[in-house]
Structure formats: C-alpha cells, structure tokens
From TrEMBL:
Coiled coil: none
Phylogenetic placement of the source organism: Eukaryota, Metazoa, Echinodermata, Eleutherozoa, Echinozoa
Region named Disordered: 1-40
Protein name: Putative xyloglucan galactosyltransferase KATAMARI1-like
Keyword Transmembrane: no
Domain Exostosin GT47: 45-177
Length: 231
C-alpha cells in the first residue's frame, strides 16, 4: 500500500511539473498565438478560405465602370446593381452581380483567414463578366487583363505556378459557363490557367460535346443560386 501511495504521489508531482512546464512555454508565446491555441476545435471553422488581395483593376474598377457606363444596359446605381433583376436590362444584375455579391459575402465570412498557409482553399476575386461588358471603361483589352491577373496570382503566392495549382483554387463567374469561352469573353479559353480551377457560375453547360469541344469536359463547375440570401 505504501509503495502504491508513493507511486501515486510521484505521478501527481510529475504531472504537476509537466503542467508547469507547459504553462511556462505557453506564456512565452505571442498573445495572438496563445489566443489561437486556446480555441477549442469546435469553435474553428471546418473550412478556411484565403482571398487573394488583387489590385482594384480586377474588381472595384470594373464595378465602377459597370455603374457609370451606359453600354450594354449597364447604367445603374450600386444599389440597383447588387440587388434584383430589372426587366429590360441587357445584362441583369441578379446574374452578373454574382461575382460581386460572392466576393463581398466572403470578405465578412467566418470561414475567412488572412493566413494563406492555413487555408483549405484559395479564392481569386475577378469580376470576369463585368470585364467582358465594360469595354469603354478599362484601358486594356480583356485578354491583357486576364494575362495580368494570372501573372499577379503566379507571383503573389507559391501555390499557382504556370496555371498548375498545388492547392485548391476557385473563382466565380457572373455569366453562365458557355459565355466565358466566346471571343468577347474568353476567360475559359485559356485552358492552361483555368482547367484546374473550380468555378462557381449561374449555370453549367449541359451539352457534353460542347463542353469537350471547349476543353472543359472534366473541369469542375458549381452552379450557384442566382438569389443570394443574407447569412
């Protein structure tokens, strides 16, 4: 019995020393790291998303062009642009604003992380549909804009080298998939850079042969609802 009591006491003391050591190590860590470690697994999102901090030429500049120009039925206030469909518009806000709405919602999402190394998936914000329609509001061709986007993504982080992502990437399209392999809207024609990206779009081309012809036979696309509700 005495031997067992000595063993039990030794175990308690050893455990106490280990705990004291862990407490000392923990207290030496930066405050932000201690707070991060203090979170229980249940409070951490099951999925973390990193957003590339792209220059405004790929996002807000295109949005302002869409708001301020009259070509292609795009004369509208920002409120009108990001809310509902209006009959008579050549390009309805409920479709094309998916790029803008998704980006804005994600910026305030609980799944967002500012640390790319912790992200499960990386998001490339680019208002591709607006770029195709806002021809009088940008100083470069759509093809040049695409080239500059890939160059930026390639040089910013080491996860997208020459169009071959080492980690999952996704983008959002404001128009149905098939519109983005046309001459005036050629994003998906660039198979080298887009084949391995997951796209979210209002619609997916159902014609299997047409998808194969466009080089997207096995490429992934997620169909999004055109009406987004508040989180």
């Amino acid at each position: 019995k005495q031997l067992q009591a000595d063993i039990d006491e030794s175990t308690v003391l050893t455990g106490t020393k280990h705990q004291q050591h862990r407490d000392a190590v923990e207290s030496s860590k930066p405050e932000t790291q201690r707070l991060e470690n203090a979170k229980s697994p249940a409070t951490r999102p099951s999925l973390l998303v990193y957003i590339y901090d792209v220059p405004s030429m790929f996002t807000t500049d295109l949005l302002h062009c869409a708001i301020n120009n009259t070509d292609n039925g795009y004369q509208r206030t920002e409120d009108r642009f990001t809310s509902t469909t209006h009959s008579g518009d050549d390009v309805t806000s409920v479709v094309t604003s998916l790029e803008v709405l998704f980006h804005r919602r994600l910026l305030s999402s609980k799944y967002l992380t500012s640390d790319a190394t912790k992200a499960d998936v990386l998001f490339i914000p680019f208002y591709a549909s607006l770029a195709c329609n806002c021809r009088s509001g940008i100083n470069v061709t759509v093809a040049d804009l695409h080239s500059q986007l890939w160059q930026f993504v390639d040089q910013t982080l080491p996860y997208f080298r020459n169009g071959k992502p080492s980690r999952p990437h996704f983008m959002v399209l404001g128009k149905p998939e098939r519109y983005h392999w046309t001459k005036i809207c050629p994003l998906l024609r660039d198979k080298e850079h887009t084949s391995n990206i997951i796209f979210i779009s209002p619609d997916r081309e159902n014609n299997v042969e047409l998808r194969k012809y466009a080089g997207r036979g096995t490429s992934q696309i997620i169909v999004a609802l055109t009406q987004l509700t508040s989180p």
